[in-house]
Amino acid sequence: MDQDVYDKGLAMRRKVLGEEYVDRALKNVDDFNRDFQRIVTQYCWGEAWGDSTLTPRERSILNLGMIACLGRMEEFQTHVRGALNNGMTPDEIRAVLIQIAVYCGIPVGVDCFRHARPVIDAHLKKK
User: Is 0.70 surpassed by the pTM of this model?
Assistant: First the structure.
């Protein structure tokens, strides 16, 4: 394991997804999922998200589109939260969701709007 890349990934993961989310994921580490959590932190968050070529905001836009296309709505909600943490506005997220609906299909767009709404509503209540 590359400890520097892991540490960079853990910091980025916490910044984007929030302390509570990451703490919950790491609290549930056991012998079965330990390697997976390490790979997610080091590879996804350290190698990919840690590369400064794209901003976290740009990466959020990409993730919303890709995860929507895969139909992974629980993970989609996680990345809507991340997009808000990365400075995207609800209007910008709405525009991304319309783009997703056009290119991935209206049923996917319906799911995206349905799953994004409670996350955005909770975010706006905190303000």
Answer: yes
